[in-house]
Amino acid sequence: MSEALRVGIAGLGTVGASVARVLTEKAAELTRQCGRPILVTAVSARSKGRDRGVDLSGAVWFDDPVEMARTADIDVFIELIGGDEGPARESVRVALENGRHVVTANKALLAKHGLALAGIAEEKGVLLNYEAAVAGGIPVIKTMRESMAGNTVSRIFGILNGTCNYILTRMEAEGISFQDCLADAQRLGYAEADPTFDIEGNDTAHKLSILTSLAFGTEIAADDIYLEGISNITQADIRAASDLGYRIKLLGVALRTESGIEQRVHPTMVPTASVIAQVNGVTNAVAIETDILGELLLSGPGAGGNATASAVVGDIADIAKSRPGFQHGPVFGRPVTELAPYTRAKMRSHEGGYFIRLTVSDRTGVFAAIARRMADNEISLESIVQHANGHNSADQKTVILVTHETTEAAVRKAVDGITSDGHLVDKPQVIRIERAARTRL
Amino acid sequence: MSEALRVGIAGLGTVGASVARVLTEKAAELTRQCGRPILVTAVSARSKGRDRGVDLSGAVWFDDPVEMARTADIDVFIELIGGDEGPARESVRVALENGRHVVTANKALLAKHGLALAGIAEEKGVLLNYEAAVAGGIPVIKTMRESMAGNTVSRIFGILNGTCNYILTRMEAEGISFQDCLADAQRLGYAEADPTFDIEGNDTAHKLSILTSLAFGTEIAADDIYLEGISNITQADIRAASDLGYRIKLLGVALRTESGIEQRVHPTMVPTASVIAQVNGVTNAVAIETDILGELLLSGPGAGGNATASAVVGDIADIAKSRPGFQHGPVFGRPVTELAPYTRAKMRSHEGGYFIRLTVSDRTGVFAAIARRMADNEISLESIVQHANGHNSADQKTVILVTHETTEAAVRKAVDGITSDGHLVDKPQVIRIERAARTRL
Question: What pLDDT does B435 receive?
């Protein structure tokens, strides 16, 4: 039996407490798997007294996580504080500088400072593990860092935010509005009091930026992501999607194009018969498409104390199994110094199908005008549905267009043209359609 | 840059040739990721002359893989010969005994001799990696060996044979018979000339036995698996399943029960709205259920030269990233010496729902007799469908029963009773229903 691996946990919220409990309750099995014990020898949190359902009296208490990162008698620093600046950033930096391995669940920190921190880790020859930062309990980081060796990724996309997926799933299942779903999600603890960060797609963007770097060997570029949230999705969209054989999901998508890497987060229509369409509620999923492997889909819990703790403990166990002198793979798949600069593909060049829902005045010639705008921009239509149903007032009707593959620029020009024609009585709705395979034999 | 990792490939069929091509074509990126080059320095196959689309002239040729395992100048021995005895077994044993790492895609070999081979690997301090042996390109072995640390698995199940899933998918989609689907699958290369091993479930059982060991920390017990193939699945079953909201899949299932570990391979009804039901064609999928993480589902290509090669190359890259002196985790999650003996749960104690399809003579009292047999065995029914449709002759009808949770023993007794009552005009069909989550919010 080798020496114990000593870990210090900074942040004892839901995830931190869960990590401490798993390390304690599963100590015997972890020792068997790793060949040595894992001991929590230091902790740091805001309030010392609170009962967290685990005995941490054997660990040295630090009021300041940065002090713990600097001076504690630990091999691994576990950062579960959160936030992309302040003590989270500083403590991770100090831990790495002092030659300690770091495990973190902090996507915001990695999206913003991941390259700098990875640079320190690689220089010091220590590990920076972050499985829990993307898609919670789903082992997508390990899959991308280790299992994809030899594969060239063409596209990676996923449902990366449980709050949004919960809301969209309930909107479809129960026919209730976005606002009512959000209120319910808040009541049940699936959404924050200020839900902006989740529902406007920022959280998905942080996670996507990390996956993009791993997938394409490029520098993290979280600010270069096209962003659209789900707050303007209505029951009319959900019902129309369903009628057309689609379901609406908030996806993060990254793919390689001729002009660069396309990164985007927006509500997306996926075929109802695809596997990703069946990923419901707070569950997350990631699909990876490559030249050698083909398509891989991973789905599971994307949040929650235990699921996140599972990923953190897996990261710690990986370190426990390694031995001094062992040099693991690079933090973001390639050494930081060899990551390629990120070149952003223009959103206007995005190619794909589009769903366009228009509320128009019920006048002669409106439909012809819409069709003309589409033709002028060389957009061919897969389907056209026109109806005046109970949701419209007597002098309005709804026109729903589904396009064949076209470009973002063409669609924007067409919709601008239709708007300027003056027939619209409501804001036009445009939702991108994502090709999702796995529906075929 | 460290020294190159030297690998020898034994077996240059579809997978072996694909591995050689990936290692050659992706050499620069693999070197970047692993920190050192991976070189194919030795090869062994049956016919030396054949063009395999890759230049192997720099590698030393061996007619005998065992000789290569013993004497070649290699760090890693890649076994892609196949078969659970003969040169595959002997060459792996010799490679490990000589202190070389081994990567294999051979599930039959591991199912039969995995424990003995892992024992040698652990004694010699070398790695025995086998990602490609289960579910092809899906990284389920890495997930189970590494990402599940700290988790206690309650159930693992999956679609592990692409041939069977292809046949069942086409039977449902096109309404054609098992025999016609099989013939088509053979023509398209998705099924062997002798398909017994696939369609009777043996291949699934080999893979399941490996997953069971990883999931429950028990010795591999491939001979202790309840086995039922798909050859007796008819269109009547598929249609009835569909009407009831189910799809039929050949699953391998392992779960922990009070009396031991239940391992079974059989056609299974899963809810149409579950993710696993959407896994179509030759695609494989594995679902893992644990106490900490919850439910995880991985799906992707389960066979094919490239997908399998992807897993093999991932295994090689893991070795390339490690350095001399590094001690990785045990072959089957725990050290072989600490794997618990396998205790088989009795199949008669299996608990679950059942689909029972009976073809009976159209006489008064038949239905009452069936209901009585169910009641006598304390089986409560979720649904009963009785119809005389075009597929029955005039004096016959079909009765379809779906039970609530009951036991295998009760169902067998009830069906035996119904059979002895003399009303059946055809063999009764019994298909187990598997609870598959992920349909809920």
Answer: 84
Whole-number pLDDT of residue A201: 97
- In chain A, whose CA is at the least distance from the CA of B314? A147
User: Given CB atoms, is A327 within the 8 Å cutoff of chain B?
Assistant: yes
Subunit contact A297:B300, Cβ cutoff 8 A:
yes
Which residues, 6 or more positions from B77, have their beta carbon under 8 angstroms from its beta carbon? B7, B8, B10, B68, B69, B91, B92, B95, B100, B101, B102, B103
Chain B contact for A439 (CB, 8 A cutoff): yes
Q: Does B334 touch chain A (CB under 8 A)?
A: yes
> What CATH number matches the domain at B347-433, 3.30.70.260, 3.30.1330.10, 3.40.630.190, 3.40.50.300?
3.30.70.260
| C-alpha pair distances (Å), A321 with each of A314, A405, B34 | 11, 49, 18
Comparison of pLDDT for B1 and A192, the residue scoring more: A192
Residue with tokens 């009777």: B200
Interface A:B, Cβ pairs < 8 A: 237
Model pLDDT for residues A83-119, shown as the tens digit of each residue: 999 999 999 999 999 999 999 999 999 999 999 999 9
For B429, residues 6+ apart whose C-beta sits below 8 A from its C-beta are B232, B234, B236, B237, B355, B356, B357, B358
**Which CATH number, 3.30.360.10, 3.10.310.10, 3.90.1570.10, 3.50.90.10, labels domain A141-301?**
3.30.360.10
Q: Where exactly are the structural domains of chain B? A: 5-135+305-333, 141-301, 347-433
C-beta of residue A196 within 8 angstroms of C-beta of residue A230: no
Q: What angle do CA A285, A286, A291 make, to 5 degrees?
A: 150
Q: What is the ipTM of this complex?
A: 0.94
How many whole angstroms separate alpha carbon A275 and alpha carbon A329? 31
- Helix, strand or coil for residue B190? coil
With an 8 Å Cβ cutoff, are A280 and B152 in contact?
no
Chain mean pLDDT for chain A: 93
Q: What is the mean pLDDT of residues A116-130?
A: 96
Residues of B in contact with A147 (CB under 8 A): 131, 139, 142, 310-311, 314
Looking at every residue in chain B, the average pLDDT score rounds to 93
Interface of B with A in 124-183 (CB under 8 A): 131, 137-139, 142-143, 146-152, 166, 169-170, 173
Q: Residues for chain A: how many in total?
A: 441
- State mean pLDDT over A391-420: 92
CA distance A180 to B168: 41
pLDDT of amino acid B441: 38
Rg of chain A over Cα atoms, rounded to whole angstroms, equals 24
What is the tally of helices (H) and strands (E) in chain B?
14, 17
Which of A295, A300, A309 is nearest residue B295 as measured by Cβ atoms? A300
Q: What does residue B317 show for φ and ψ, rounded to 5 degrees?
A: -60, -40
Beta bridge partners of A159: A285
Partner A contacted by B321 (CB < 8 A): yes
Q: Which CATH number among 3.30.530.20, 3.40.605.10, 3.40.50.720, 1.10.10.10 corresponds to the domain B5-135+305-333?
A: 3.40.50.720
CA distance A3 to A38: 9
Distance from CA of B322 to the nearest CA of A (A): 6
pLDDT, mean of residues B329-355: 94
- Chain B, window 9-68: residues with a beta carbon less than 8 angstroms from a chain A beta carbon: 18, 22-23, 26, 29-30, 32-35
Burial code of B290-314, b = ≥16 C-beta within 10 A, e = fewer?
bebbbbbbbbbbbbbbbbbbbbbbb
Q: Where are the alpha helices (DSSP H) in A188-283?
A: 196-199, 202-216, 235-243
Cα–Cα distance for residue pair A280/A169, rounded to 1 Å: 6
Reply yes or no on whether the pLDDT at B438 is more than 60. no
Q: CB distance from B103 to chain A under 8 Å?
A: no
